[in-house]
Input
Amino acid sequence: MILNKISLLNFKNYDQIEVKVSPFVNCFLGKNGMGKTNLLDGIYYLSNCKSFFNSVDSQNIKNEEDFFVIQGEFKGEEKPENVYCGVKRGKKKVFKKGKKEYEKLSEHIGLINTVLISPMDTNLIYDGSETRRKFIDLIISQYDKKYLQTLIKYNKVLVQRNAFLKNLQQGAKFDELSLQIWDEQLIAVGEEIYEHRTKFISEFKLVFDEIYSTISGGNETAQLNYKSQLDEKNFEDLLKDSLYKEKFIGYTTKGTHKDDFSFEIENRPLKKFGSQGQQKTFLIALKLAQFKHIESKTESKPILLLDDIYDKLDEHRIAHLMNQICEGVYGQVFITDTNTKRLPAFFKKRKYECFSFEIDQGELVK
Ligand SMILES: Nc1ncnc2c1ncn2[C@@H]1O[C@H](COP(=O)(O)OP(=O)(O)O)[C@@H](O)[C@H]1O
Ligand SMILES: [Mg+2]
Output
């Protein structure tokens, strides 16, 4: 989907702005702390129903205000598609397509896909497994609606099974039949997730390898692997074997909620052995592979959001990415930069359509 226009009201450091954007390249330019990243985050909200940077919705309301609204107009098949996100302190978030409010936010995921490249991506390397699972789960959810429903179901059953174990821990009588019911559901859904993730990684690896080799110059190899407790034993046996322990500790220790994805360079952990340059290359390859994979699954290009890439990449890699943008490899692109001249000059020279917006303290200067 292509964004035509976005408007923000009381969102982060913005009072009220409306930005009509280009279907090609858009540059948000200005000094640090002016609101460039916040504007990208507004677009991210319309795609993912939440902020990339702050998962507490109310903290994205402008200080001392009571609510925020983000509205986007997207180019639809026949007529424009309007998306609305409203957050009011103490109220449930309202998310609408056209005039109709979604019953569940998960219904919206996949309609407008974005890929964000940000300095925060290093969290994928340094955080625990949850960050990597969420990243991979988001990619699959961007093209497979059923997968997201499966994840939601798994988490619901897991919460119930954990509550059951917690009760046992606190002295409740062991009711084997109840546990069996939770287990059957958890196993069925968990195995489905395992299959999806296995299939995903086998396809995604190919895309990732190719991109990694292009941007690293083909001098080294990177590995992306899926690791699950279900690799070694079936889920039913895993649960059986750990029941004795889980009755004491009061929660579920085995399952796909413990899965991880390992990042390696020359078969050694990227976190420990990768240089900064290798880590950056790995992350950008990961994100561009996300783009390519979603594009091939949905036959449509996600919106590419590039936050402060000049801080992140060396000149050679930036040039490569910019050339690809000008060749139309990526569709609609939003880029932030603290240098107000560099990007407009580059795209002008290449005669590629580019809209530039200068942002100063939450206002559009031009
Ligand atoms: N809820 C909020 N209310 C008011 N200002 C906010 C809120 N959240 C973030 N900000 C402000 O937004 C500014 C950062 O904007 P950002 O988009 O990250 O800047 P940059 O142009 O450097 O990308 C900071 O000054 C920060 O204090
Ligand atoms: Mg920024």
About this structure: Residues 36-37, 307-308, 336 surround magnesium ion (ligand 2) (CB under 6 Å). The domain at 1-113+309-316+332-366 is CATH 3.40.50.300 (Rossmann fold). The mean pLDDT is 96. The chain has two domains: 1-113+309-316+332-366, 116-299.
